[in-house]
Each structure stands twice: as structure tokens, then as C-alpha cells.
Task: inverse folding
């Protein structure tokens, strides 16, 4: 078995709580606009546009653009779906709201666990987020990544194989020496197909109390943990890996 040298993390939902963070900024925004909408429902609607927007890039229907651009376009779609004409709102105001994705809080275990992993392993986001987005999240939350990698560096979105394979190549390690860490089974399935090791970190409240997906590991992942702290213990040899 190849010796693990690095861990790449999915970010939205795995490292940070996107739903609460986006809803927080949406709540402040709609209060100023006198709009009646549940902030969490708004955040969920915004997130639902995420996968279809990236699929257009992966399918070759448009050239690569960063996630900030897709989020901004998707914001217009959400507003339109609520019966609000985005053109009636100053563009600068919507641009500011789009930065909600840059101000997300980490799950409580994320920074301590990643800090422990950093002692021995290369750690970096293997995310669909663009570089500035990842940098802002890291600076605000104190996430100690060694590098910012992922979609914008590769110019493609997960789960395209190039995102996983090129990330390993950029780190000058073999795919089997890189562990993909995610709270999403489909992300891990794609990474495993590329030869990466895989780790499922459970986030049963990513989508709120009514979450029905990704409540548990659904594949034969190399590690299954309830937190980044538990995962760090496994990687550092303090605990034993749990296999599905």
C-alpha cells in the first residue's frame, strides 16, 4: 500500500457550514430590502443551482469560469424564482451578497483536526471553490492549508477525473498517496475511481435537520470518521480506521 502523503478536502459542507453562513448574510440582506423569505430556504435554493451550473462547464457547453461567477449568476436565478427582478437591485448590492460564500464558518472540529494533520501531511482544499474564495475562507477561519488547489487550478469541476488526478500531480505525489476527504459519497466515489484513498467525515446536519442524503458512508472508503479530529487520529496512527 502506498504511504499517504497528503489529504485534499472538499470544503463546502465538509470543512465549512455553508448553509448557516449563507443564511446569516441573506437574513441581513433581506431585512434591508424588506423581502419576505426564509433565509435558510434562500440558501438552499442558491445551493441547488450549484450542480447544474457546474455541469454546463463539464459538458463543454461553456468555458471554465470560477465558482464566484457561477454563484453570482445563480443568485439572479434564485431572485427571479422568488418573483424579484434582479435588475431592480443595484448590481453592487448583489455582488456584496455574493460574498456570503467567502465568509463561512468552519465546523468546530475542522481547524483543530486539520492543524493536527498538517503536522505530518500536506493539506489543501480539493474543492470546486475558486482560489480567492478559498483564501478568504481560510484567512477568516484560520484554516492552515499548505496550498490552494482544486477546480480553478485545473480549470474543471469535480467530479471530473482531472480535478483529482491533476491535484495529485501538482503535489508531486501519486494518486494513491493522496486521500480525498469529504462528507459526500459521490465525491469519494469519483476520487476512488481515480485511485485516490478516501475518507468520509460525517456531516449529518449540512442541509439542516431534514437532511436525507450523505447521512452515513455508502461505500468502501478507507476511513470513516465523525470529525476531522477523529480522522486525524486515524491518519496519525492514534486510532484505527473504520471501514464501511
Result:
Amino acid at each position: 500500500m502506498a504511504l499517504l502523503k497528503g489529504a485534499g478536502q472538499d470544503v463546502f459542507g465538509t470543512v465549512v457550514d455553508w448553509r448557516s453562513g449563507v443564511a446569516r448574510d441573506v437574513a441581513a440582506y433581506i431585512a434591508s430590502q424588506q423581502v419576505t423569505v426564509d433565509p435558510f430556504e434562500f440558501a438552499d435554493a442558491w445551493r441547488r443551482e450549484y450542480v447544474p451550473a457546474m455541469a454546463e462547464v463539464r459538458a463543454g457547453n461553456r468555458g471554465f469560469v470560477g465558482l464566484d461567477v457561477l454563484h453570482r449568476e445563480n443568485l439572479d436565478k434564485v431572485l427571479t424564482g422568488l418573483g424579484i427582478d434582479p435588475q431592480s437591485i443595484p448590481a453592487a448590492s448583489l455582488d456584496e451578497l455574493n460574498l456570503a460564500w467567502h465568509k463561512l464558518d468552519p465546523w468546530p472540529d475542522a481547524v483543530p483536526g486539520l492543524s493536527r494533520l498538517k503536522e505530518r501531511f500536506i493539506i489543501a482544499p480539493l474543492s470546486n471553490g475558486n482560489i480567492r474564495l478559498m483564501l478568504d475562507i481560510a484567512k477568516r477561519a484560520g484554516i492552515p492549508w499548505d496550498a490552494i488547489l482544486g477546480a480553478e487550478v485545473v480549470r474543471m469541476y469535480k467530479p471530473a477525473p482531472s480535478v483529482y488526478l491533476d491535484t495529485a500531480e501538482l503535489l508531486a505525489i501519486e494518486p494513491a498517496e493522496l486521500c480525498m476527504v469529504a462528507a459526500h459519497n459521490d465525491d469519494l466515489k469519483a476520487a476512488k475511481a481515480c485511485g485516490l484513498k478516501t475518507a468520509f467525515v460525517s456531516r449529518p446536519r449540512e442541509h439542516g435537520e431534514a437532511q436525507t442524503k450523505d447521512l452515513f458512508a455508502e461505500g468502501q472508503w478507507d476511513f470513516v470518521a465523525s470529525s476531522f479530529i477523529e480522522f486525524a487520529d486515524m491518519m496519525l496512527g492514534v486510532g484505527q480506521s473504520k471501514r464501511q
